[in-house]
Structure formats: structure tokens, C-alpha cells
Amino acid sequence: MKKKISTLLLGALLVISCSSSDTSVDQNGVQPNGGGEPNTSNVWLYPISEIRDGGPGKDGIPSIDAPNFSSVENASSTLTDDLLVIGIKVGDEVRAYPHFILDWHEIVNDDVNGVAVAASLCPLTGTSIGWSRIVDGNLTTFGVSGKLYNNNLILYDRATNSNWSQVGLQCINGSLIGQRPDLVTVLETTWGVWKTMYPQTKVMTSNTGFARNYGLYPYGDYRTNNSYLIFPLTNNDNRIPAKERVHSIINGDKAKVYKFNAFGNGSTLRDIYNGNDILLVGDNTTIVSFELDAASGPLEFTYDYNGSEGFFKDNEGTIWNVFGEAISGPRLGNQLKATPSFIAYWFSIGAFYSNAVIYE
User: Fold this and answer.
1) Is residue 251 part of a domain?
2) Which residue among 8, 100, 155, 169 sits deepest, i.e. has the most Cβ atoms within 10 Å of its Cβ?
């Protein structure tokens, strides 16, 4: 018994010692006996007490690093028109990443026509965002850290092991702390809309190398249950139902959101945000937004989706697609600048951006 008590005391001392070692940094991450050099691995931009362990651990939700693709014809047997996809277009190369696959993987690392991109989906916040895989000048891939903040995915880059907040759009821990990612424009819409716009698209298949039940959504009624959240939020904003999907334009620590019902069956909106002239085009499945400049600002735009690539047009007769590319007309070849924006469940915008503005 005496030996057992001694062993327990030794174990307790080791735990105390380890805990003291882990927390011996000041608020700037400087170790008192470390010569004043910052230890960024222990510094987080968000309170460490609010960083949650999601359960599976680092890479427990495996990213897809070698995606396989099929044609629209082959994909039609497994994809219904109402399923959401993340779409990307780089030059003439067009690809779609179905949500029902990324619900189980959250990140796909890909190379699209020479553009190294990580398409990330957080099922808990309903956010689909494209990031460049060129980080701090180096090519990398992203993985799932296993940690969450405000129920949102924290990615890590495999070059520096730094942690990145998806909705926060910044590095929150590691050697790149404070840096912002370079965004790659992607579109979240339904498979029915995407395949109509881009019948030549390639579609990521469930041939991922992993055994997952891709026909089953892993979170039950989470998508429609407004009272169901996995972890508490730092800020509860009840101005909009928690799981309502909104188009969110981000500017540093500020955000402005636009509801789908503002567009009815299809329309355009003009707005001023952060001093910029903003064009929004949307309907009940798809919303896109662009910053207008001196050349495009005087134009008048109207919604013009009729089952092909064109999504809107201007008063000069130019037809534009969802990526802001002029595909026919007098301004053929011109490109509108996409806003830093994405679709999200409202609760996540309210949690990350406490002063978010709602377009009324």
C-alpha cells in the first residue's frame, strides 16, 4: 500500500510539473527563462479555453489529397439536383466537390489548371471556402486539426503546422500567426444548377481511398435544427434563425450578410460596404457578389439565368457568369473582382463577427 501511495504521489507531481511547463508563458507567448524569444506554438489569437477538441484528433477526419473525378453523365446516378456542391473554374477547367463527400473529409487538396487550391467545407457552420495552397511562398496541403472554434473548422497547413480559422480567415496559432489566407473563388450551389451551367464539369467521386458511408449525413438533423449546436458560442446572435444560410461578405473583423429571400426567384442588388460599390446577384439557390470599379460601376446589371453559363447581364449587352467573367458581348474577356465572401449558417457569422450588419 505504501508503494502504491508513493506511485500515485509521483504521478500527481508529474502532472503538476507538466502543467506548469505547458503554461509557463506570458500573454505574448514569451517564456520567462527563454531569453525573451516568442514561442508562437503556445500563442493563440483566440482564448485557448474556447478552442474545442472536436474528438477525432488531428487528421482523424482525413483530408482528400488525391481526388478522383468522373463526368456529369457518370455522376448523375449518385447525385440528385438538390445536393450542394463546391464549384471552381480556372480557365477552361471546371470541377465540382460534392458536400456529401466533404461532410466526411472537410478538406480536398487539389490542383486545378495550375492553381493549387484547398476547398474546405465545415459541416457544422455550413461554410465552403477556397484557399490557395501557396502559404508564405511555399506549396503545402491543408489538413483537419481536430480543433474547433465557435463550432468551426480549424485547418492546419502541413508546411509550418500553423493553425488557421476557416470563418475567421486568418492564422490563429503557429509561426504564421496573424496572416490572412489568399482566397480562391469557389461557388456553393446545387448540383442541378452547377451541371446546367457547366455540363463539361468534372465531379469528385466517392472513390477516396477511405471507407465511409457517403450516403448518410453524419450529423443527424443538425442542418435543420436551430437549437442543435455541438459546442457553446462566444456570441449568440438571434436576429436570424441559427441555421439559416446567408451570403456573408467579410472585411477584416467585420461582416455584412444578405439573405436568400432578398433575391426572390432572381434579382440583383447594389450596395455600399466598406466604401466599396458592391453588386450582388442571386436567386433561391445561388448568390455571388463583386466589387465594382470605375469601369464597371456605371453599368446597370440584371439577373439573367436561363439554364446556361450566363447568370446576369448589363445594359450594354454583355453576359456575365457566376465568377464575374464576361462570356459574350462588348466586354468579352473582362473580369469583375469577387468579394471575400461565402455562404454560412447565420450563427457562425454572428459568433465570429459580433457587429455583423444584416442587409434589410
Assistant:
1) yes
2) 155
pLDDT greater than 50 at residue 37: no
Grid coordinates of 144: 483537419
Same domain, 136 and 55: yes
Does residue 324 lie within any of the structural domains? yes
Is there a domain that residue 238 lies in? no
The pLDDT assigned to 215 comes to: 86
- Are 245 and 263 contacting, i.e. CB atoms less than 8 angstroms apart? no
Helix (H) or strand (E) holding 269: strand 267-273
Residue 344 domain boundaries? 245-358
If asked whether residues 194 and 254 sit together in one domain, one would say: no
CB atoms within 10 A of CB 359: 16
Report pLDDT for 85. Answer: 98
> CA-to-CA distance for 170 and 177, rounded, in angstroms?
8
The answer to whether 194 and 186 are in contact (CB under 8 A) is no
Is the pLDDT at 3 greater than 60, yes or no? no
d(CA 176, CA 44): 11
Domain final position from 173, 204, 235: 204
The DSSP result for 175-224, as a single string, is: TTTTPPPPEE--EEEEHHHHHHH-TT-EEE-S-SSS---TTS-TTTTTTT
The stretch 59-77 carries a mean pLDDT of 96
Q: What share of the chain is helix, strand, coil (3-state, %, to 5)?
A: 15, 35, 50
